[in-house]
Design brief:
Blueprint lengths: L3 H8 L10 E3 L29 E2 L11 E2 L21 E4 L9 E7 L12 E12 L2 E6 L9 E6 L7 E6 L6 E3 L7 E10 L5 E9 L16 E5 L7 E7 L3 E11 L2 H4 L5 H21 L1
Antiparallel strand pairs: 1-15, 2-5, 3-4, 4-15, 5-14, 6-11, 6-15, 7-8, 7-14, 8-9, 9-10, 11-12, 12-13
Length: about 290
């Protein structure tokens, strides 16, 4: 499935969605530390603006690393809609760490376009995550912990008997909500939306398990798994992935930040998929005739 984007590019038949503010497919050499890497698109401003991934972990134990994998995380929903994807992924695997424990926290800043986060606009984020084990893991959108506008999506009660997901704004324990019945281990496409309205910033999060659900449109997602009717959420310019504590394996991929659903959940149009099928059929027929 990760070859889909390459195939579409070569055949020039895939539908093109509005470009996100930033996209990171972790297309780096397998095994390298993601810290210091500057890939992803666009490279300028608005975009990644030349910034690199930085390991900012400051907790106890060993400072582990996120390394590039040799393949990426593909995603297809229950109706056969496939997320456009490319490159590899990044993994922190403490199940094999020696010594175990500690963690990783990788942060990258980007430049936002004018008007991002203004009243009447939306902010959208999506990423892929595949988790096994009982360790902590999560995503932060915004400044370091303690900033009142920071959004966090993370695993609750890691290492314990009850594991689920939590959406929290900054360090305020009044601005948090836990998911009901969503396992903190699994293979998900995580989608987040912030509505910037007058005096309030409703925030929604969906966890779509690979092989299930419908990602064809915002309405097809159904009711969010996490929802906070809060305010004061800044249109942030920093993305952070983290993992650590207790044996765990966490893989992240396909990070997109934009201003619409289409920005962060690109799927080929049915007509484009038909053209791809015709093109592949023609290639196979040509090869058969040559033989």
């Amino acid at each position: 499935m990760k070859k889909l984007l390459t195939t579409c590019s070569v055949l020039a038949v895939c539908a093109v969605h509005a470009a996100p503010i930033v996209y990171e497919g972790f297309d780096y050499t397998a095994g390298v530390d993601i810290a210091g890497q500057t890939g992803g698109i666009p490279a300028g401003s608005p975009g990644w603006n030349g910034n690199q991934w930085t390991n900012v972990y400051s907790g106890g134990g060993v400072n582990q690393t996120f390394n590039a994998t040799n393949s990426g995380l593909s995603f297809t929903d229950g109706n056969g809609n496939t997320l456009v994807s490319s490159g590899n992924a990044m993994i922190e695997d403490e199940q094999d760490a020696s010594p175990p424990g500690g963690g990783s926290s990788y942060r990258r800043e980007y430049a936002t376009p004018s008007g991002f986060g203004d009243e009447g606009t939306e902010a959208w984020i999506s990423y892929r995550v595949d988790i096994s084990g009982s360790g902590s893991h999560g995503f932060q959108w915004g400044s370091p912990s303690g900033n009142i506008s920071q959004l966090q999506i993370y695993r609750v009660n890691f290492g314990g008997s009850t594991n689920t997901w939590r959406l929290q704004i900054g360090g305020n324990t009044d601005d948090l909500v836990d998911a009901d019945g969503i396992s903190a281990t699994g293979d998900y496409l995580v989608i987040m939306k912030v509505d910037y309205e007058a005096g309030v910033d409703p925030t929604s999060v969906w966890f779509v398990e690979n092989g299930t659900g419908d990602i064809s449109s915002e309405s097809a997602l159904g009711s969010p798994d996490l929802f906070l009717d809060t305010n004061g959420v800044s249109a942030n310019d920093t993305a952070t992935f983290y993992a650590g504590n207790f044996p765990t394996s966490v893989t992240y991929d396909e990070l997109r930040i934009g201003t619409s659903f289409a920005d962060v959940v690109p799927i080929p149009e049915p007509s484009s998929l038909l053209l791809v099928s015709i093109a592949f059929g023609s290639i196979l027929l040509l090869r058969r005739n040559r033989n």
